[in-house]
Fold this protein.
Amino acid sequence: MQHSKQNLKVQYYLTGLTIIVFLLKVATFLMTHALSVLSDTLESVVNIIATLVGSYSMFIAAKPKDKDHPYGHGKAEFVSSAFQGSLIIGVGCLIIYESIDSFIHPGTLHNLGNGFWLLILIAIINISTALFVMRIGKKNNSMALVTSGKLFLIDFFTTISVAIGILILIITNIQKVDSIIAILLGGWVLYDGYKILRASLAGIMDEADMALLESVIDEINNNRNDSWIDLHNLRVIKYGALLHIDCHLTMAWYLNVQEAHTVMDQFTDLIKSKFGDSVEFFIHIDGCMHFSCAICSIQDCEKRQHSFKKKLDWNMENVLSNQKHQLN
């Protein structure tokens, strides 16, 4: 909940900053009449809409669980990101269309020197904001905030590219360079919009995040407890800033309820120490079977039926299966 409030506060800050950047770009376009600057300004219109939608989605995502949403409202962030990605794709298409038209029918440019330095200032604002916001978003597991940061990162690359194009124009006085830069920017914007939309739909559809799964498995393997005899049927689902982890954890069959709960707490505390407190668990405890002895490293076990043979390394293949592991 604390992370959600921080995310919302940052998103409000971004909304105001996006409007400032947009006004600076409008001033630059009115100063230069450069199509590449207009393309960059159109992208800022999308950023304003996207940050407003992102702010609302974070407000929804920050709401606590209720009867109708037992897993919380975190999915609102994925919907917001999908909307943002769609807007970016639309702007990319518009930029390419306008750029081709300008290439065929070039216009007159003005005051390029002052416009160049104004673009450099905008680029500095964008890259500073992007790095800060993406760091907070990754720390708090907020896809909406990461997406907002990526919007500023895209804006940085587009703005710095426009600035380079303006500099080339100043040096060469070849006006079609402006249209060529704008077409390249349109292609870049289309590609980034596709990536954002693809990631958002993956979250909505609960597609497995392989990188996140691998990170969870590595953390468990590197800090393994002998009492965790086996791990299988592992699932990790993201709901905005909340991670929901399901798994089956095998432990000694003779442990009483309190002892088994202590072992389970050690498991959950390890994951929380790595990924923060915004993790929800649903852990099914399995008692060990006779074939578990071969992979069980508990020493001096009075109930052991077979000798220990090999410690089984958990990986992406074996922990996702819904079967207790045993040696062949």
Observations:
- DSSP finds eight helices and three strands in the chain.
